[in-house]
Amino acid sequence: MHRKVTKRFWWVVSLAAGGLLVGLLGIMVTLWVPKTPGSHMVRYVWVKPGQTATDVGYTLAKEGIIRSAAAFAWLSRFNGLARHLTSGVYRLSPGETLVAIQQQMRAGDVVTIRVVIPEGFTVQQIVNRLIAHHIGSPAAFRTLVAKPLPGMPNPQPGVRDPLEGYLFPATYQFPYNVTPRQALEIMWQTFQEKVAAISGGARLNLGAWVTLASIVQKETPNAESAPIIAAVFKNRLKVGMPLDSDATVRYALNHAVPGGLSLGDLTVASPYNTYLHPGLPPGPICNPGLSSLTAALHPATVPYLYFLTLRNGRVLYATTYAEHLANIAWANQHGGE
Length: 337
Fold this sequence. Notes:
Elements: H1 2-32, E1 43-47, H2 53-62, H3 69-79, E2 88-92, H4 98-107, E3 112-116, H5 123-132, H6 138-144, E4 171-175, H7 180-199, H8 206-219, H9 226-239, H10 246-253, H11 290-297, E5 306-309, E6 315-318, H12 321-333
Antiparallel strand pairs: 1-2, 3-4, 5-6
Helix pairs in contact: 2-3, 7-11, 8-9, 8-11, 9-11
């Protein structure tokens, strides 16, 4: 009788062990074998903020990317991913293993849209570039750029684009599903961070500072000459001279002008025409980069009131109008080089 019980016991144990082995093999298949081995199909899955591992597993299973939502949730709890899910859009395939998919999510390897915004771009140029990268539409941006974003300076009378000057030029990696407003807010947030870093928290007239920086940006892309150009305009403001900036006139014209400006261009009726109106224009004329912002904040200590930029990029400076005329004559004799 005892021998029969013992045999039955070991038979049950063997059966249970076999079932456990089959179960473990099933789990291994679920974890290590892709849903569709060799598949190159791609799906974009949005992991929303606040979603749990169970929610994400259900979505992945529904999209046909993984074999088991339960396995995804279990593995997420086991390896800690459940506590560190990074929201965003992921580029996933049923040809990947569950482990590989979770590694992407642990690394936060979300799909992004790379957009380069050069220094000196205007708001309209930035909008056009975002649209070219399939972020928003002309109609969507038309409404968004009509008024400043929260925290931006209130536009002065005559300002054409309230956001002008406050969208920092940089290379951005926008989330795949970024909205037009979010893209603008990211650039505004980046501007604030950069400004805080170089201003040291000093109380400044932000509008005047950025407006001057934008003029410097358009007058010279050269970081070395920027502090001297900024000083020229600062000196003019101190003595009450017009800025006479061609860059502000080009902004006022609001269309490309190849070559030099004509006398007719210099008489365009606009508050941005610094040949006609003393002081700074009502607002920035572009979105300046870090070197121009720094130059406008810390201009060089020089007595110059005039400058002439040659075609080769060299700049001739003068303190008196007579010296400026002599520089012009020299440039004409040497073909503007």
